[in-house]
Amino acid sequence: MEVEALKKKAAEIRRQAIKMVYQAQTGHIGGTLSSIDYLTVLYYEKMHFDAKNPQWPLRDRFILSKGHCVEGYFSILADCGFFPKEELDTFCQFNTRLIGHPDRCVPGVEMNTGSLGHGLSGACGTALACKLDDTNCRIYTLLGDGELAEGSVWEALMFAGNYHLDNLYAAIDRNHLQISGKTEEIMTLEPLQQKCEAFGFATEVIDGNDISSILAALERLEHISGKPKMLLLDTVKGKGVSFMEHAVKWHHGSLTKEQYEQAMMNLAEKESVL
Ligand SMILES: [Mg+2]
């Protein structure tokens, strides 16, 4: 997809995610909105997969380590054809398989996540297995910045560097907020790039809400061999909806009818200038 088409797709996915949260009256919308541009680039430009054969052995894999931010992820999987789009209307309803976190009963989901700190470990194991199988599959994973307080993340970083997992593309949704406030006030993460490099990663720090920057950074990393890759995505929590941007209260929440209409209007305004 061209850059402009990717931007329009990201806007469409944002609208779908807002609709799901409004209909369900629940959802982790802030971190969903910050991460949609990255997921859009992965699924519509970078990853090789077959939605009609989700277990195709040579597919690239994506693991949503920040599993609570699932609305954009489910929207993309449906749009790519892993399951019918109409099923998105069942999000968080009784008897649905689209619960509030990724579950492997949903076609396209590689790993159950939501309990934080496990996605990178799963991605590392998958990346090592793909290397042992001598395949060229790439393994992508997205972590939250609040998630980095989990010690298991740092064990996985150590593992990735030790085994030179250059088929591993980890990314951190660096929106500077977590459930209870600013990351730097709760558990200091900086200097994050230097820490990742010390563990043996090739790193890029970019505007994670800019499609062109994401594409360029991934292309630079693809030329590096012998090292696992880390993208530090500088993002805005709640990106695209004015009253949600930078607001910690929108980590999780439900929308009133007025808020829903305002959010959709906001997104439509931004899409109209694309
Ligand atoms: Mg965060």
Quick tags:
alpha/beta, single chain, 7 strands, binds magnesium ion, 9 helices, two-stranded antiparallel sheet, 274 residues, Rossmann fold
What does this structure look like?
The chain has 274 residues and is α/β, with parallel strands linked by helices. The protein has one domain (3-272): Thiamin diphosphate (ThDP)-binding fold, Pyr/PP domains (Rossmann fold, 3-Layer(aba) Sandwich). Helix content is 42%, strand content 12%. The chain contains nine helices and seven strands. It has helices spanning 3-24, 29-46, 71-79, 119-132, 151-162, 183-186, 192-198, 211-222, 257-272; strands at residues 61-64, 139-144, 168-174, 177-178, 181-182, 202-207, 229-234. The strands form two sheets. A five-stranded parallel beta sheet has the order 1-2-3-7-6, sandwiched between helices. Helix 1 runs antiparallel to helix 9, helix 2 (29-46) packs parallel to helix 3 (71-79) and helix 4 packs parallel to helix 5. The radius of gyration is 17 Å and the shape is globular. The two termini are 15 Å apart.
